[in-house]
Every structure is written in structure tokens, then in C-alpha cells.
Amino acid sequence: MTKIATVSLGCPKNLVDSEQMLGLLKENGFEASASLAEAEVILVNTCAFIEDARRESLTEIGRLAAFKKTNCRLLAVAGCLVQYYGGRARGEIPGADILLGVGEGSALPRLLAAAAKKAPSADGGSYLRWEPAPRHRFSDDPPRLRCAPPHYAYLKIADGCDNRCGYCLIPAIRGPYQSRPAKHIIAEAVRLAAEGVKEIILVAQDTGYYGWEKGRGPRLTGLLEGLEEIDGIRWIRLLYAHPANLDRSVMKTMASSKKICPYLDLPIQHINDRILKRMGRPVSRHRIEALLDQLRELVPGISLRTTLMVGFPGEGEGEFEELEEFVRWQRFDHLGVFVYSREKGTSAARLKGRPDAATSARRRDRLLRLQKSISRSRLRRWRDRRIEVMIDGPFPEKNSELLVGRAVFQAPEVDGLVVVEGGGCRPGELVGVRVKETSAYDLYGEAAP
Fold first, then answer.
1. What is the mean pLDDT of each run of 10 residues along the chain (449 residues)?
2. Is residue 51 within 8 Å of 14, Cβ to Cβ?
3. What pairs with residue 199 in β-bridges?
4. In this predicted structure, what is the pLDDT of residue 286?
5. CA–CA distances in Å: residue 17 to residues 49, 105, 125, 145
6. How many helices (H) and strands (E) does the chain have?
7. CB within 8 A of 88, min separation 6: which ones?
8. H or E segment and range at residue 189
């Protein structure tokens, strides 16, 4: 049985794609391997959202192409980077034997079988499959071999994007927004629950837009209600909700639910009206502030994560200071900051007045320092209180008897952790923890049944 190792780059949505390709390969006689040294085939699923992501993907591909020469037989490269280069992919991504664009994973078993019969190629790039305008073909029952911890799973509810943010390549790379049928999502969630998954994390380029592209209005509420009924699932979490598309009914469903986490990832990017308009974001400062007020009113105790962009063309000191003051006033629970990346082919690439790199980096660092202070202050409120924590596993330090987990206000990988003393708990178990200390991003406590 041919062993295949997978390297998945980029976001959780990419991880789902990687897991589905692995599931398909398993159905076709391949065996997943966690070790590159044992693998005969390596699959890299790539990210191409911004220049830094493309550079990271190309560096990793180059490393693995060199590794392949003496350690394994085939290297397959899939996903956004191949789609970004399109017909130029063979020349831009050397060393790969198979190149697959977005939505072409179903061809992977057949192409690997064909490539295995050919003599090894030093240059690679023997097979290239991509479509200039990808359409996502959701199967009714996608196979999936999960790479994430067994107690939580990302569940992709849609692919592509219909938003037209001026800085973003995703619509060009991933194609138009396409909602996955709710019955198929729920069926997969039932299977995940049967496998021991306790937390379902819904992902899409814009989860709030789910169902809108079909012309019948929002359908996310109905999907959430269906997921709520699944036995075994304890937490349901929402990521990536564009502020222009979040419906009031979703907030009410969150408020009345016993399983939907009072947590939302709501990327706003900026707050200055002129910058938002130049970005192509169909929201104003007034609408964003009204939405945040509404969320906090309808979902008491909600934890909010957002993403900001600095250095966009036209952002002067005044616009940045407005953003900084907004962050200071809103006191988000979690916040990420990125420097604008000029991407050829986007409407923003034609705009003038881009701040220099040093200025942009300084603005990013100022916001991150501010958020660190806010986060430290907000976490102090949990001291000497008992909170419910989902255990993720042992503390990574060798020979430590500590455990790590997450409270309901912490998503995997992007937010902080809760370090737990004692309890002998298993991953996926929900336990009471008495918080003793807090830091800028993490909490420390002891099991308190």
C-alpha cells in the first residue's frame, strides 16, 4: 500500500480540503503517513492569498522537491497556488509531478497512479489540471481523513466568495460563492459526532452569507438549528462572518442556543468610512458599530474576534488614529492585524497613496501592543472564577503533568489557551477549572469539579 504524507498550508478551509483529498486517497488504496521519511508520495495543499503566503508555499515546495530526489517518488501540489498561476504553473512551481487547481482533488488518485508508471522526472510538472473559473463540486458524502485533534473538526459550509473587496484575490482563485446543501453538512456533522467530535467549527469565506447566493435569503439559522439537534456535539463555533452579511436571526439563534458558542469572528478590516469605501467593503463605521452593539445586546457575554488591515492606499495618520481609537474603545477579545499586500489583478492595486513599509509595520505593531494590553485587562475578570474548559491535550513541555484546553471564548490555534493543573482529563472532555492567574492571552487554573 502506497504511503502518502500531507502538508497543508494556510487556513482551516484548506485543511478541510486536504483531509478530503486524503480520504479519497484512502478509498483508492493509499495509506496516510505522518512521517515524510516513510512516505512514497508527498501532497502539498497550498495558499496564495497574499504574497507572503505564496512565498511560504513556494519555499515549502522547493524544500520538499529537494527531499523527493533522494527520499520518495512523487510530489503533488494542489490548491490555491496552482490556481493562482493557472497555465503557467509548470514553470512557476518546479519539481512537482502533479499540479492540481482548486476543486480538482478528485483527479488525484488517477493522476498519481499514472505518474507512478512513468520514469521519475527531475523537473516534475508532468500533469496539470485546472479550470480558469473553478466551480466547486460538493459531493453528497465526501470521504475525509482528519488531521486535526479527534475532538474538534472544521466543517466547511461553502466555498468561493461573492464579495468584491478591492484587495482580495479569493474570488478570482476560489470562484463564486457556493453554499453546500444543509442536509449534506448535517449528515457529515452526524458522522463526525459518531467519531467522537465534540466541537464543530463552521468555516467558509463568509459564513454569514450562507444561502444568500441562491436568492432565497439567509439560511444559516436553519443550518444552525439542525446542527443543534445532533447528539454528542457540545460546542458549535462560527468563524469568518463578514459584517455586511450577518443576519439578526443568527444572533437570536446564538442567544437561545445551548451549543452555539457565544463567540464570533467578525473581520471588519478598518473603521474609517473613506478607507472602507476604497477597500470595496459595503459597510460604514455606523453600521459596524450598530452591529457590534446589537451583538452584545442580543448575545450577552459574547466574545468577539476581528481582523484589521493597516497600510491600505490612502491611509494617513488621521485614518490610522481613528482605527486605533476605535480598537481602544471597543475592547475586542481577540484581534489580528495584517499589513496590506498589493496584489496584481485586484482593483486596489491601482490605487495611489500607499504608506511605506516601515510606516505600515509600525502601525501594525502599535495596534498589536494596544490589543495585548486590552486582552490582558479583559482576561483578569476571570480570576478566581470557575469556567468550563474543553481539554485539548497534555501541556507540550516534556514530562509536564499539566493539561491545556480552551474556554468557550477561545477558538483553536488563533486564540489563547487555558493551562490546567490536575484532573487526569482526556482530550474533548469538558471540565470545570478555577482560574488562578491570567496573562496577556492565556489563563492558568486547576481542575474544580
1. 89 93 91 87 93 94 90 90 92 91 88 77 66 70 86 94 92 91 93 96 95 74 95 96 92 95 97 97 96 96 97 97 98 97 94 96 98 97 96 81 94 94 86 95 92
2. no
3. 152, 235
4. 97
5. 16, 8, 21, 10
6. 13, 19
7. none
8. helix 182-194
User: How far lies 100's CA from each of 30, 170, 360, in Å?
Assistant: 18, 17, 35
Q: How far is CA 170 from CA 90, 102, 260, in A?
A: 21, 11, 28
Q: Report residue 154: phi and psi, to 5°.
A: -80, 135
What is the structure's pLDDT at 398?
A: 66
Q: What is the Cα–Cα distance from 199 to 431, expressed in whole angstroms?
A: 14
User: Which residue's entry shows cell 451549543?
Assistant: 259
Find residue 129's DSSP bridge partners: 100
Gap between the Cα atoms of 349 and 330, Å rounded = 30
Residue 445 has φ and ψ, to the nearest 5°, of: -160, -170
What is the reported pLDDT for 121? 52
* C-alpha dist (Å) from residue 57 to 138, 248, 441: 25, 39, 29
Of 318, 317, 319, 367, give the one whose Cα is nearest residue 339. Answer: 367
Which stretches within 229-302 are classed as H helix?
Answer: 248-256, 273-279, 285-298
Phi, psi of 285 (to 5 degrees): -60, -45
DSSP code, position 441: S
The model's pTM is: 0.93
In 3-state terms the chain splits into helix, strand, coil percentages (rounded to 5) of: 40, 20, 40
DSSP string, 112-159: HHHHHHSPP-SS---EEE--SS------SS------S-TTEEEEE-EE
CA distances from 251 to 50, 225, 238, 261 (A): 32, 12, 11, 11
Q: Cα dihedral angle (51, 55, 56, 62), rounded to 10 degrees?
A: 160
> 206 by DSSP, 3-state: which?
coil
> Hey, what's the cell of 446?
486547576
pLDDT of residue 170: 92
What pLDDT does residue 137 have?
A: 62
Report how far residue 56's alpha carbon sits from residue 84's, in angstroms, rounded to the nearest whole number: 14
Q: CB within 8 A of 169, min separation 6: which ones? A: 48, 49, 50, 84, 343, 345, 346
What is the phi/psi pair of residue 76, to 5°?
A: -110, 135
Three-class SS of residue 353? coil
Q: How many Å separate Cα 173 from the centre of its chain?
A: 16
pLDDT of residue 80: 94
Regarding beta strands 443-447 and 430-438, do their DSSP bridges make them parallel or antiparallel, or are they unpaired?
Answer: antiparallel
The confidence score (pLDDT) of residue 122 equals 47
Distance CA 32, CA 41 (A): 10
| CA 313 to mean position of chain CA atoms | 26
